[in-house]
Specification:
- By secondary structure, the chain is α+β, with helices and mostly antiparallel strands.
- It has two domains: about 240 residues, no CATH class; about 160 residues, no CATH class.
- The chain contains 19 helices and 16 strands.
- The strands form five sheets. The protein has a six-stranded antiparallel β-sheet with strand order 11-12-13-14-16-15, sandwiched between helices.
- Helix 1 crosses helix 18, helix 6 packs across helix 19 and helix 7 runs parallel beside helix 17.
């Protein structure tokens, strides 16, 4: 029997027990953890994960999107629909809630890890570590939550099936990609299960290692494209954002107005004095700073608040409140751009229960630290009251820090297969850090049963995704939703 702990820091954990995702559980031996995985396999066979059949009472997918829209900025919601309607693949990127609802009805092994909650292929990429090395990792944690590790694997696999269809790949090529992905996840988990705890915690994938993992099997042109993408990512930092997003007005540095995608803070809150807005903003920044490590708080003190704006980001996140904050250090050549992004309840929360985190921004930061090998030094959270009187949670990070992602529009089947394996290894490491890697490895075993099942699931869910995409197309045609395209 397990005991749910609301406040992990205050919990008195009995001898021989430990905390795991807010629950007090026993320390198990390796043999007991292996047995746990095998028992889960007997209860929920690996083959049971194959395929997808929508339930008889499956919610209307458009209604789920409309439900999300009720808490978002109304004038930005049509932009979200416009971005989702570009293709079934972009639709999938915004459909995390729809898939969470579907996954709730699928088999579960009963082994919990911290999960990303939105592990599609575009939420993996490169960025700078605190040591200024370029690393490859998961880079979006808005939906992170303790939950079934299989859900992340299924969402990742389905994203590759859908992207493969978007690129016009044959079913044979897609099958190769999917089988490669799941086999790599399984093999990686077996390797992580053998590691010492500290070795696992320190493990990471830097860009050089990533190129070694996939580079030798890429064509010369594909390798050249990968190296060019990495070089471009190195230019994406606060200086680049500073040059692109700001100009000088009456001798003062200001963020350029480009509505509705970028709107300076005094345009967003018209009728409120700029001094009043910035006094509240300074208070917010000071509270957020208290969630950082002491050395990083000291570093942030050396920067002065200059300007802020609301910025539209992503696909699924469009409509949530996201602000960029410009700060300057010693002079105009020393900028820092932070992004404060609204954190709502995870799409998984209604299907796996609640956690002890009282702040959704803290939930995001907690999950990111658990799953990522190296996190942004300015990653923190806050809770703020808006001018409308509504209390909202936010997490904060740097806007750009050598960030880059795969270019799906030009990817080949062989490159996609290698990239899928890289994402699977990364996801496996994140799950291994945050859950019982030995039990998961034992559940997966050495056969390809799980690989085959997930490949079948991914293709079946890609079919469902296409039907859901058409439902959104029909909603636009009927006038049920308002769509703004091209933004």
């Amino acid at each position: 029997m397990t005991t749910v702990v609301e406040d992990e820091n205050a919990a008195a954990v009995p001898t021989g027990m430990r905390l795991e995702h807010g629950q007090v559980v026993p320390h198990l031996t390796i043999e007991e953890r292996v047995a746990r995985g095998k028992a889960a396999r007997r209860e929920v066979p690996r083959s049971s994960h194959a395929g997808f059949t929508p339930g008889a009472h499956r919610p209307d997918p458009v209604a789920l999107l409309e439900q999300q829209a009720t808490t978002r900025v109304p004038e930005l919601v049509p932009i979200r629909y416009g971005r989702m309607l570009v293709s079934p693949f972009t639709f999938y990127r915004g459909a995390a809630l729809i898939m969470a609802s579907d996954l709730a009805g699928t088999p579960r092994s009963g082994i919990t890890t911290q999960v990303c909650g939105d592990a599609h292929l575009m939420n993996f990429g490169v960025f700078a570590s605190p040591e200024r090395r370029m690393v490859f990792d998961i880079n979006d944690f808005d939906e992170t939550f303790p939950g079934p590790w299989e859900w992340d694997v299924k969402r990742l696999a389905a994203s590759f099936a859908i992207a493969g269809r978007d690129r016009g790949f044959s079913s044979k090529h897609r099958s190769t990609v999917l089988r490669s992905l799941v086999a790599q996840y399984r093999d990686s988990m077996q390797r992580f299960a053998q590691m010492r705890n500290l070795d696992l915690w320190y493990s990471h994938i830097d860009v050089e290692s990533a190129l070694q993992l996939i580079g030798n099997e890429l064509s010369a042109s594909a390798r050249k494209q990968a190296e060019a993408s990495i070089a471009k990512a190195r230019t994406r930092d606060s200086l680049q954002a500073f040059d692109k997003l700001t100009h000088v007005v009456d001798g003062q540095r200001r963020i350029i107005s480009d509505p509705p995608l970028v709107e300076p803070i005094d345009e967003v809150f018209q009728g409120v004095e700029r001094d009043q807005i910035f006094e509240q903003l300074r208070t917010t920044v000071r509270r957020y700073r208290g969630t950082l490590q002491s050395d990083r708080r000291h570093l942030l003190e050396d920067f002065q608040l200059i300007d802020a704006a609301r910025k539209v980001v992503g696909v699924g996140s469009v409509g949530t409140r996201a602000f960029i904050v410009l700060l300057l250090g010693r002079d105009d050549g020393d900028p820092l751009f932070l992004q404060a992004k609204e954190a709502e309840a995870s799409v998984l929360e209604d299907y796996v229960g609640r956690t002890g985190h009282g702040n959704h921004g803290e939930r995001v930061v907690h999950g990111q630290h658990l799953m990522q090998a190296a996190s942004d030094i300015f990653l923190g959270w806050d809770r703020a009251t808006g001018v409308d009187g509504t209390v909202r949670d936010f997490y904060v990070r740097q806007l750009r820090d050598w960030k880059g992602s795969v270019v799906v529009e030009t990817i080949t089947p062989s490159t996609m297969s290698r990239y899928a394996g890289l994402c699977a290894t990364t996801l496996g490491r994140a799950h291994a850090r945050s859950g019982d890697r030995i039990a998961v490895a034992s559940y997966l075993g050495n056969s390809d049963s799980f690989d085959v099942a997930i490949a079948e699931f991914a293709e079946a869910y890609a079919d469902q995704n296409e039907r859901d995409y058409e439902a959104l197309v029909d909603a636009e045609r009927s006038g049920r939703i308002t769509v703004q395209r091209g933004l």
